[in-house]
Amino acid sequence: MRKNVVIAIDGYSSCGKSTLAKALAKKLGFIYVDSGAMYRAVTLYFLRNKINVADDASVADALQHIELNFHSRDYQSHITLNGEEVSDEIRLMPVSENVSEVSAHKIVRHEMVKQQQRMGKSKNIVMDGRDIGTTVFPDAPVKFFMTADPKIRAERRFKELESKGNNETTLEEVFENLAHRDYADTTRKESPLVRADDAIILDNTELTQEEQLAFALERVEPFLTKTA
């Protein structure tokens, strides 16, 4: 198998990017890097420390005090913020409502992109996010762009929140939040969400997790046997 293979997965919120990325990484023996979790963890730090996103100096200073790390447990990828496990907290609505603004910040994106590119220099990885195939790894040999019907996406996200014990958020609020994030992600000036010209579209509106994994594997495997 080739070394230093990067599989880039981009797409809209709640399209199952992380689910597919984790499954691919496990199947192929790659390392899974959740770039979205990195931005969410930064957002959580900003919220906790009342960092004004409009103040570039405050943002730059705050980033110097943030250490993010990934670790695996029970075949799942977990993220720590300055040594604290925050994998569940970063998925709650307060972070969801602010992550688009934080992740659109030029200084934040530049710092996160540098960290992500370092991760892909010496290992086989699967990374999902908004700009992985366009900005972080534009030369990735295989790229996917995931999408799904907005209503289905909202229902999936709502069920995920319910499973984590969040019963205060309504389905309508989740739908509106996703619509807001879609607009913010696709219209921001810094690395907007767009499909790379060579990205494979994966619409999983009517696909099971097993079906989308099979779809991806069929398209990834030819790249793994090519000589570097």
UniProtKB/TrEMBL annotation:
Residues 7-219 form the Cytidylate kinase domain. Pfam families: Cytidylate_kin. GO terms for molecular function: kinase activity. It catalyses: CMP + ATP = CDP + ADP; dCMP + ATP = dCDP + ADP. Keywords: ATP-binding, Cytoplasm, Kinase, Nucleotide-binding, Transferase. Belongs to the cytidylate kinase family. Type 1 subfamily. This is Cytidylate kinase.
